[in-house]
Structures are given as C-alpha cells and as structure tokens.
Amino acid sequence: MDLVLCHTTADFDALGAAVGLCVLRPGSRIVLTGGCHPTVRDFLALHRDEYPLIERRSVNPQQIRSITIVDASQRDRLGKAAEWLDLPHLNEIAVFDHHLQADLDIPATVTQIEAVGASTTLIVEKLKNQAENSDTPFRLLPSEATVMALGIHVDTGSLTFEGATARDAIALAWLMEQGASLGVIAEYVEPGLSPQLQDLLREALNNLRSETLHGYSIAWVLLSTEAYVPGLSSLASRLLDLTETDALLLGNVYKFGENENNRNIAPESPVSNRLTIIGRSRIEGTNLSELFKPFGGGGHARAASLATRDVDPLLTLNQLADELKTQIPHPPTARELMSSPVRSIRPETSVGEAHRILLRYGHSGLSVVDADDRLAGIISRRDIDIALHHGFSHAPVKGYMSPQLKTIAPDTLLPEIESLMVTYDIGRLPVLENGQLVGIVTRTDVLRELHQQKARDRGSNAELSYCVMPESVEQLLRSRISAELWQLLSIAANIAQNRGWQLYIVGGAVRDLLLATDDTLALTDIDLVVDGKCGSDDSGAGVELASSLQKLYPDSRLDVHGQFQTAALLWHKDSAFGSLWVDIATARTEFYPYPAANPEVEASSIRQDLYRRDFTINALAVRLGVPRSGELLDFFCGLLDLEAKQIRVLHPNSFIEDPTRIYRAVRFAVRLGFEIEPQTEGYIRNALASGIYYRIQGENGRAPALETRLKSELKYILQAPYWKVALQMLGDLQALRCIHPTLELDRELWRQLRLLDRCLNGRRKKEEGRRKKEEGRDKKEEGKDNSQFPIPNSQSPIPNSPFPIINIPDWQMRLEVLIAYLAPEYRGKVAANLQLPADSIKRLQLLEAGKNDLAEGLPKCELPSQLVLLLRNYELPVLIAIALQSPRSARRQIWEYLTKWANIEPPLNGNDLKALGYKPGPGFKRMLDDLLAAKLDGDLGDRAAAISFLAQRYPQT
What we know:
Helices cover 43% and strands 15% of the residues. The protein is of the alpha/beta class. The strands form 8 sheets. It has a 7-stranded mixed β-sheet with strand order 19-20-21-18-17-24-25. Helix 12 links the parallel strand 12 (344-345) and strand 13.
C-alpha cells in the first residue's frame, strides 16, 4: 500500500497535492492524519467519493510500502500517523513542501522543498511534464484539476500573496486547460473585503430580507451610501456565501452631483439619487440578465447588474425580487433522484456476507431493514472494511451499522437534500414512504444532478467542465425519425407514465442519433428501458409495456424473454415502420458469477442499467415523457468520447467479465472510425494475457461468453464489409485467443484468408453473371454480403448451375478457415464450442483426413477425368479449406477443377440410356462415369460418338 499523508487540519493545498500524487502514482491512497480545515470539510462532504481517501484506522501498517508527505516537513504535523515513519520495511519516504523555513525532521529518502506559492504547484509541474512527454493522450479528471487548482488559489490568495510565483500561475493555467471548474473554485475561495465593504457587510446582514420558495432561499437588501462604492460585486458574493442564500439582489443607492454627466438622462430631468443593483443566483433556470434588461442592465444568467436613476429605490428592488421569484423552477425531488429498488440486508447478516453483496452490486453501502422491512440502519463500505480488518467477518452487521439515521420523503427537494448531506456529512439518505424504504439518494446522485444542472445552464460562468449536454435532444430525435415512429415512442411513454414508470430510449439508437449528419435517421433497432422506481413488483414492467403496445399495433409480433425481463415488438416490411425491432426491457443490473459467464440479472434503476453496458458511447439514454422529456442521461461522459472519437470501457474488469466486449470494441472502433482509448486497450491486453478464460473453462468446463455469444460477435465482424480491418485489429490485440489459446493472425493465416476472399469473390461474380443473364438484374441482391456457394450433394440447385447449393454464408466460411488453421485435434472441439452447425463441425473434423488423401491422390491425376473423379466427392468448403493449406500445385489443380472441369456433364443422361435400350440399374452410374471421363479427356466429340462409345464398351446382348 502506497500512502500520501496530509498534515493535521489539512487545507486545500495539502489535499490538492495529495490528489495530484495519486494521479502520478496510481493506486496510492490519501490519509487525512488529523481532521481538515472547515472549508475543506464542507468540500469533502460533497466530493469525498471522487478521491482515493482512506481513514487512518483502516490502514494496516504492515502493508505500507511507501509514504509521501505533502505540504509538511515535520513529524509533529502528522499526528499519530508519524509512527509509520519508523516502520523498518518501508521502500521510500518522500516529502514535497514549499515551506523553506521549516526544519526537516522526517527521515526522507526523497525530498523536494522549493520556494513556490503552493506545494500543489510542485506536483502539477510533474503532471504537466508527464503529459507533454507521454506517447498517449493524457487528461486529468475535472474533479482532480479542480481540487489542485483550489490548492494553488487558496495558498497564493489567487496569485495575490507575496509568496506567489510565476510557476504557480503557469500551473494554474494548465489546470484550467485540464478542465478545472471555476464555479467550484469560486464557491470555496474566500477573497478579502476592504474596511468600507466590511462595514457594509455588517449593515447588510442586519437588514437582509429573505424568503424561501421551492426549497430555494431568495434574499434582497438595500444599502444607502454617500457616494459610489467600488467592489460591491465582492460584497454580494460574500453575502451570498455567509447567508447560504441561493439568490441575492444587493441594492446600493447613493447621492450624486447635479452636474454629473449622464447620457441616458436628459439634463432637465430632476434627479437626486442613483441606484445600482448587483444580482447573484445559484438557481438553475433563473436569468438575472433578462430580469435587469428593462432597466438597462445585463450580464450573465447567474451574475448581472444594473445602474439607473430617477426611480424609487426600495420599490424597484422589491419589484425585481418579486419578478425573480417567478423564475424559480421547481427543483428535483428525492423521487426523481433516488435509486430504486434498494439493496437491503437483515441486522443478522454477517459482515462477510455484506461485503460479498457490496462486491456483487458495486455499492458503497447497504440499508439494513428488520423483519417488517422497516429501516433499522445503514452500513457503509468503510464500516465493513474496518470490521473485516479486525477479523469480524462472521459478526452480524447490527453491531457495525449506523442506527441513528437522517431520512427523507419522496417529495423532499434537492436543496434540502444537499443541505442535509453537507450539514451532517452524510453520503446517503434513505427515502421512506409510509414507513417503507422505497429508494436511496446518494452523494453521487446529488453531485450528478448539480453538475448536469450547471452543464445545462449555458449562460453561467460557473459551469462545470463536465460533459456538455445538447440543448434539445427531444427536438433532435423528433426531427430525424419518421412521424409514425415518434408517435409510437410517445404512446409508449404515456403508457409508462400512467403506470408510474419512466421510459428511456437507450444505447445504440441514442449514439447514432448524436452522430448522425443526415436530416433523417433510419432506425431499425431501438432499445427502450422502463424504470419502475417502485421495487420488485415492477420487475415485469418491460413485458407489460410491450404487451400493451402490441394491442395497439396488432400487425407487430410480440416475443417475450421472461428470464431477462425483456420483450420485443417486431415489424417486417410494414408500410409505416418497414422492418423494425423494438426491444423493451425493465431496468436491470447484472452480475457475473465468474469470468466469461452468462450474467445474472435483477430489476434495478436506469443508472444501474446504463452502468452494466459495455462502453461509454453506448451508455447514453434519452428520457421520454414528463418530467424533463428529452433529457439526455450521460453518467459516464459518453458525449465527450463521441467528440473524441474513442471507445472507452466503463470499468476495468469489463473484459474479464465478458470477453465478447473485446470484439465489440473492435467492431465499433472500425465501424465508426474511432480509436480504442489507450487505457481501454490496456485492459483488453491485460485480460487476454491473464489466461483467465482458459482457467475458467478448465475449472467450470465451459465459459458461456466464449460460445454462442462469441460466435455472434464473430458473425457481425466477418460478414461486415470492414472485416479485414477488424480482423487485423483483433490480431494485433491477440484477441483471436478467445477462439483458442493457440490461434494468432500470422502471415500464413492472413494469406489464406486473402486467398479465400479472392475465391469467394470469383464465385460470386460468376454466379451473379449467370443470374443477370437468365433472370435479369435483381437490384436487391447486388452488394449483399450473405452470398451462398454451390456444394455437391444438396437438394437445392441454383438454376443452370452444375453444383447444387448448401446455405453457407461468407462469414461462416471465413470462420471455418480460422478454425481450420488450428491443430487438427482442436478443430472439432472449437467448432462445437462455438455451436456451429453439425455439418460444419463434421467438415472440420474430417478436414485433415481429406487433406492427406488429396496430398496423395492429386499428384497421380494426369488426366482431367482422374481429377474430376477424385475431387467431386468433396464439398466445396472442404476443397477450399484444403486448397488454402496446400502447395501451389495442388491449389492450381483444385481451382482448375472448380472453374473448368466441374461444369462438364456426360453427353448422354439416364433417359438417353433407357431410350437406347439399356436396362436401368447400378450399371447406369458406371456407364455415365465412363462417358464423362471420355468427354473430359477429349475422347468423345458429338452425341453419335458417345453412342458408338457405349456400343463398344457396353454391348447389348
């Protein structure tokens, strides 16, 4: 374990430097050795989960590998954690500080103590240097850049303190480029006030009027001075912070001379005072600029001002306050924010079992309910980790849970929820309705809503640098799909709303909508997710909604898959929808009991449903129906990845759980023209190098993800026009090992695949030419990649083709060539594992024997008849596979047979033999074979010669 220690009463500089070091040294954990500054405490109350913090009491000293101290160089500033410095097994003790005057008494092996304004600057310089010299793209998370920027701002007084240096300014500028949020920085940095403004601050606090509306606090105050006072904007910001007001109007009326030059007011107008109003707002949906516009004011939506004269100051201020109240939107409620259903356990559940449940579902805490399903407490991952650390895995959780709880109701508003979390440092709030636990709101839920509110507010200077939202996804969707499809989606949304559900369009349809450049979007596959919000009773919501829609659209076919709580509506060549597949599922979460297994699914929320998906660009959803119809849900910054044209996985173990996602990553990258994000590529290579799939196959006997699901992905790739590029990418990643551990795309296998492609193209062109001549041009068949090829011994002939046909599409032939490249003993097993058709498995099992027989027989074929009689017993895929693995001479003979001799027929047929007086029987085949051989070898000319040949060879008695 690598630790980064902050000094006691940690400030933003210590925290920012520590976070930066964790970026430099992934896997490091931060320890606050003894509390933190009140402002830092408030900051962490909302943002704690974004940083790798660990409590001192959870640390096992014997597991510490290295210790790094930031913003301190003396032991007494580390509290009890200073004892760890004496551990004999430490690999390294490092110190990063900017206090030159302090005496270093820490036994450091690495030190960097320099005269800069903030210790964070030293770490930022290292990050900046790493980014500039890295071969792969480097970018901080906004939360990381923000806390480091706060460290520099606070310790340098926003670059105004004497100790501030140019290095601090450069570091701060780079952090802004990396996405540091000015809104968050402004919220926690405290600028100073002049003595005059401090006096006005006291007066404002004494005379402030306020009102609470929809959970938001609105305040206004009028100050009177003898003259204009500079810096009122700073006073307004300080007043906003001190009173924890959500919106503020600060008015200042002052006298001015009669001869003051004012272009906006006629000289003869009687004037005696001037009014300035500063407005500040933190409320989404308010627009102070529009509010002040009638008085000649303006600015931004959340920060604006006006200056006017010849008005009643108090009346004007009260009027503006009343108009501001009309702008206040109804904030989100707990019901809209909460996750539901809630994962709960009984008080008697063991700590070890609770830990297993947390691991399974990826939660940071669990609700504890009694036998009557009444909330009894909450236990956090932190509590469980400490209990496990002390060896109490078998103890019941009731001894470690927190029974004294703050709870909220479904109609509790967001501002109140945020206030409770900050005031009591609570990470999660249970939602109770009639005494029953119906949901839970976490710190992450609140932060996400706040971030998205700020992202939606285009006019705010305090906008966070998180994922930018399109202004109106609903309008975009409605304008690009057909009116009939939009009506279908609207009806579905209304049905869901009437049942208390929320409906979302998710996945590929949203991705393609955002990527589309054409005015119309032809959607043939749409995924809808129903979020029941009400627990297990709504686990079949998707099926119920699909059934209701099918009654309204009787021309559709309804398919139900109860195991996965999904249903599908299908239209085929419909006049309104064409060929359309609408999949409707209940929001669900999934768990993989072991790597490459089939997932176990359970009803859950839309957030958990999106988290189970493969890549960020596919984890997007659009809300259908009120409230907030058309809202885009992007919990994982999929929009940024769409803009960056990259494929990024949602979590590091994704490819361990489901190896088919490797193939999906390649397919989407090639199809969309994207790159696989470097870290995601690293996860792919690590998963393949781990050997986990083969170990699981050995332990469990099978790995479902490497069976039909892998075959489906191979089919998608091998039938696509971009299959060559995709296969090369899979080969570079060594991902063909998912088919078999020994399979790699080397030069020989690539040569065989190219030869196969040349062969298939030749056959396709020949058959297309024949069809065009005999049946006319069939435009619907041109360019399709599902060509089928003639194979002997079938019952379904192509018109005028010498070969009957077995339905084998191109992609399967390519796959069989891949499998045929394996050692003979593996081919049949791999084909069976992928659940290929029985005839395909048999071909691959017999391939080696056929190859050996032809290797012996082909050199003996001196005449065309000998070649035909030898090769006609083999199916076309077998001949092609053998040709690809054979020397050039053998390939030439096989190709000559397919293109020249195989089309030749005997000059006489069975009916001719009967007409000549021969008696039908087994001898007919021998006679026809002799006729064919004579014709192939040039010994027969016309029909008369054939009859003479028969008379000589088979005289009639």
